[in-house]
Amino acid sequence: MGEMSVSGTNPSALALQQFLESNESIRFFRLQWVTYLGVVMMRVITKQYALSLARNENTLSLSSPILTVLLLAGGIMFDDTKCGSELLWPDWLTLKVCHYQTGNSSFMCCVEEAGTEEDKSFRRCPRSRLQELEMMAKSKHDLEFLMGFEVEFQLTKPATVSTPAQQARTSMHVYAAAALRSSCLPVLEEIVDALVNSGIQIRQFHAEGDHGLFESTALHCRRRSAVDTLVYTHETIKTIMLSSTDCRSEKTRFSQTTGAHIHLSMSRTEREDAFFACILKEYAALAGFYLPNYDSYPRVKENQWIAWGTRNKTCPIKKLSPGYWEFRHPDATMNPYLATLAIITAGLVDIETNTPLTLRIHEGLDDQQVADHGITDKIPRSLKESLALFKKSTSLNEALGPEIVEKYLMHKSREEESFKQMTANERKVISMGLF
Known about the structure:
Blueprint: H1 11-22, E1 28-34, E2 40-46, H2 47-56, E3 60-63, E4 85-90, E5 96-97, E6 104-112, H3 126-141, E7 145-157, E8 166-167, H4 185-197, E9 202-207, E10 213-218, E11 221-222, H5 223-243, E12 251-253, E13 262-266, H6 272-290, E14 308-309, E15 317-321, E16 324-327, H7 336-349, H8 367-372, H9 383-392, H10 394-400, H11 402-419, H12 424-434
Parallel strand pairs: 1-6, 14-15
Antiparallel strand pairs: 1-2, 3-4, 4-6, 5-6, 7-8, 7-10, 7-11, 7-12, 7-13, 9-10, 13-16, 15-16
């Protein structure tokens, strides 16, 4: 059978064998997972070791806890460390060729927590929980969802501790052809080609409304697959931009000035009013997940009401068509598994109560008219405020469970305390290095 044979009939072995038959040049495999703080982590294994893992359906053991122990500013949260190890479970069905790195492929992993009861060992893994939620929504509510993301990224000259990042000098106009008349256009095309070759159905890309700011959008797919795709897309963009000779002085920036709008559609439009009414009720408490960085909040304008609309771009939630909605505040510093898990969980908590959908806002309303519409809550203006609101949401805390809630609040509170002691440029250097 040769080196490419996995010599097994289990689904993992068959998936890897089929992948290698079509991609003989692959030498390295990237096992990836995303921490609670939104940082993509990676272990690279050889082809021979990948064959062994798949053949025996084995896992990779790492020191515990790999989802939560590391801090954004560097270092380890020692009061969260514990003895033992955690297990990375490869999802071989997510294998993709890294068209941005010759000879490499990548796939996502789920994390099994050490030292827990068997039926609770995946309760802290956002990716596992998202799959569990997908199954529950179908079995209990007969609901299925599709999801997609808008990917906005900005080209900058890298920041140092003493020198702020500088935006690439392109046209500031949305859709401007002038912004694409630069040495970076071939690199943007290379990114799109890499994504398309990996099987991601990219629809378009264009300039956005700032220097060096661009956006791309992809077709929608099932929830967890959509998030896996987003992780791959971010890695593609960052790697190609950083390695490009045409844009060698530029760095890709996923930060507070760029959004990561979430598009969500549901299979039963007759349930959408109750579903999105529940999300609106918890939307302020959810901000700690979709605006999770200390510097996420400059994007939040003063008096930004929690409401929905159809053509009003000032609304945080926009209805695009029956059953199809856009969340406009999320940014690319979020853990997308956690953020989508929290948002959809909020929508399902009280869906059976058939809560009427209110809080619709129209353009041009003054504060009194807004109040007359029953709109009273605003998007939080800081990470500290967001976390405080999340702590108060009993129903959301119970639905997500203590396994996620306690760890997330502990880490985000520590991050907020650490980041507020830094200058804006010090924080930017850290965030741009990771995101």
